[in-house]
Amino acid sequence: MKWKWMLLVAAIAIILFFFLYISPVFSLSFKPSEVDPDFPIPARSERVEKPQADKGWIFYEIRPSLTGKQFDRYLREIEKWGWKERKEEQMGRAHVFEKDGKRMMAVLYPDQISLLPASK
């Protein structure tokens, strides 16, 4: 009888682990950004206006925020869309990506993305 309870608790723990940690990683989807249709953003992001920001920047808020594994998956998705990260130009959360002669500066946070098309 005791082993049945232990088995039940283990099964519940496995199910909770899947729904809390693994399924959000797989359910993450992407859409083209308004800055460049070749640059992906999370599908659950929404463009926001920030009049005080420097000209040219486009801002997106992500609700709910990306978790650690989802954030890593987003970076991999950018590469899948053909963008190569220029790691030597990365400064903190500011990343620089290149594709077909185009450059994109992206400041990436779990709850916000800021994009600026950049020239070489």
Using the coordinates above, name the CATH class: Alpha Beta
Number of domains: 1
User: What portion of residues belong to β-strands?
Assistant: 25-35%
Oligomer: single chain
3D shape: elongated
Low-confidence stretches: none
Helix and strand content put the structural class at alpha+beta
Give helix % range.
25-40%
Kindly report how far apart the N and C termini lie: 69 Å
What is the average of the pLDDT values? 86
CATH topology: Hypothetical Protein Ta0175, Chain: A, domain 2
User: What is the CA-atom radius of gyration, in angstroms?
Assistant: 19 Å
Total number of strands: 8
Helices and strands, in order, run as: HEEEEHEEEE
Biggest pleated sheet: 6 strands, antiparallel
Strands ordered across the widest β-sheet: 3-4-8-7-6-5
Secondary structure tally, helices: 2
CATH architecture level-2 label: Alpha-Beta Complex
